[in-house]
Amino acid sequence: MSVGQFCNRNTVVISKEDSIVEAAKLMRQHHIGSLVVVEKQAGGGKPIGIVTDRDLVIEVLAAQIGPEDVTIGDIMSFELVTAHEQDGLYETLKNMHAKGVRRVPVVDSSGAVVGILSWDDILEVMATQLTELSKLAASERQRESKVRPPV
Fold first, then answer.
1. Could you tell me which of 52, 62, 65, 91 has the fewest CB atoms within 10 Å of its CB?
2. CA torsion, ordered 93, 121, 52, 55, to nearest 10 deg
3. 44-52: strand order across its sheet
């Protein structure tokens, strides 16, 4: 299973020069908690950071800084962890755990952002697989009871 199969392709991006207010508006408009910060390049945007709703609260509101006094570039994460579309889901999960991140931008072979993968996405995949596994046990019992009726 590759990251590209399960990542969210409706990724909302922002520039590091944009305002905190613009970020908050985008998050509200799209009902999301993070934005991928990109640097424009030919063929798409290259991810350079992430900004989350938590960043807005911790770095701006809690510090009592006026939103007009900072830009996205001032509060975004700088040690960005990314995954390539063809990377394995399990390996990416291990990397996310090792780096302590909950979201990773997914990039194509040219380095342009094509999606984002969150631990929520991975949890949904795992829950679906566990559900299918539990159905397998039940269907096995039903099949056996038809093939081998009680004596």
1. 62
2. -50
3. 13-14, 34-41, 44-52
- DSSP-derived secondary structure for 20-36: HHHHHHHHHHHT-SEEE
Could you give the CA distance from residue 81 to residue 105 in angstroms, rounded to a whole number? 7
In a domain, 79, yes or no: yes
Q: How far is CA 39 from the centre of its chain?
A: 18
Q: Tell me the β-bridge partners of 44.
A: 41
Which structural domain, as residue segments, surrounds residue 28?
A: 3-118
Copy the structure tokens of residue 148: 């081998």
Dump pLDDT digits (tens) for 105-120: 999 999 999 999 998 8
What's this model's pTM, rounded to 2 decimal places?
0.81
Token reading at 123: 């949890």
For residue 28, give the CATH number of its domain: 3.10.580.10
